[in-house]
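Suppose you are handed a protein chain with no further information: no name, no annotation, nothing but its sequence. What can you learn? This example shows the usual starting point.
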Amino acid sequence: MNTWRNASLVVTALTLVALTAACGQEKDPSSTTGQAVGNAAPAQQQAEGYGSDGGYGSGAGASEAPAEAGQLAVWDSKELGEVLTDGEGFTLYRFDKDTADPPASHCEGDCAKTWPVVSARNATAAAGTDASLIGKITRDDGTEQLTVGGWPVYRYAADTAPGDAKGQGVGGTWFAAAPDGKKAAPKADAPAGGGQADAAGLSVRKDPELGEIVVDKRGMTVYRFKKDSAWPMKSACTGDCLKKWPVVSPVAKNDVEGVTTKGFVTFNRPDGIDQQSLDCWPLYTFSGDAKPGDTNGQGVGGTWYAVTPEAKLAGVPK
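A reasonable first move is to predict its three-dimensional structure. Written in structure tokens, the prediction is:
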């Protein structure tokens, strides 16, 4: 009995230490640089349709032998909808310059180094999907490439771990594949309101008055509420308040650019809504902002302020 109690105390102590490290300490402003990865920004997307770095995207070259498709699976992404993955859990992509009828690949040479083809060997349809959509084409080098719904599928060399989707939108021509081979997309009936802002990435906009502030993928200003707390993480905006100040939905850590990822955690609110935080501060948008660039929520009630890339209150003297 004592052994069990001691083990429980150790686990509890370790949990508190981990949470304190994430949300309870003063942060060093010099080490709050965000990751500049995820969906490619329009300025980075090249006309050729392959992405950056000479028109083919970025990342290491392909492995010598194409990865086998193996047992396919479906990843339910809040941002992308249902995404098809290979047997190792890596996101599979399709290329707009390819064709599905007839199935044909137009990614060769350097393109295929950045977008490694997926071998059709040992391919098994994901559970609950239409196995008749699985096919293959034979490339010029003899490789049998997997097709889904007629579309050849690829990995992205810059995806280094299962669940990465850094190739989404690269060049305006590369997109994560849905289980039917079409472009992955959120379901039409996915929640987009009711106190919760659209799932969105976070980036930085230069405001003429406030300087650099955080915006969501729609370009809408992101705010903090002074009555909230970061440790313990707590929101003082509930009920009708959320109609005026919708929460920012959880954002993938690899879908931010120029924004700190310290204290970048999901706040599981008591009302059941999941909310994104920066430096452990809950984030919101403002219903009074009608278009990107609006900052009508700035200073409201002396408690609502736009957020800097370091998660500080914009326009408030330090």
